[in-house]
Amino acid sequence: MMAKRLSRCPLCGGAVQAIIVKELPRRRPDGTCIVFGDVPATRCASCGEQFFSSEVSLVMHQALSQKKPVKGRIEVPFYRLPTHLRKAAPV
Ligand SMILES: [Zn+2]
């Protein structure tokens, strides 16, 4: 099935381009993290928003809700910034 391709960002009207996201971390409902690899997407050159086809979104949703077995595990270093740097910056 051929998915409809975006030509303009629906959020800001910027130009979009097809990309492959090498690593895409997402949080599961239970709080654990999952990383998707080599995810096809389109990205807005202006605002940076990423968009996924309905088929890709469905498969990621199934994995997030743990309806699909994971393909492997990776170890990821974690670093939390010092408290004084974790405040939201003024806009
Ligand atoms: Zn945009």
What does this protein look like?
By secondary structure, the protein is α+β, with helices and mostly antiparallel strands. It has a domain of 61 residues: Ubiquitin-like (UB roll) (Roll). It contains 1 helix and 3 strands. It has a 3-stranded antiparallel beta sheet. The termini are far apart. Zinc ion binds next to loops.
Weakly predicted, low-confidence segments: none
Q: Give the quaternary arrangement of the chains.
A: single chain
Distance between the termini: 43 Å
| CATH structural fold name of the domain at 7-67 | Ubiquitin-like (UB roll)
Task: Give the topology.
Elements: E1 16-27, E2 33-44, E3 50-51, H1 54-64
Antiparallel strand pairs: 1-2, 2-3
Bound molecules: zinc ion (ZN).
Zinc ion (ZN) binds next to loops.
Summarize the structure.
With 91 residues, the chain is an alpha+beta fold.
Salient structural properties:
alpha+beta, 91 residues, Ubiquitin-like (UB roll), binds zinc ion, three-stranded antiparallel beta sheet, 3 strands
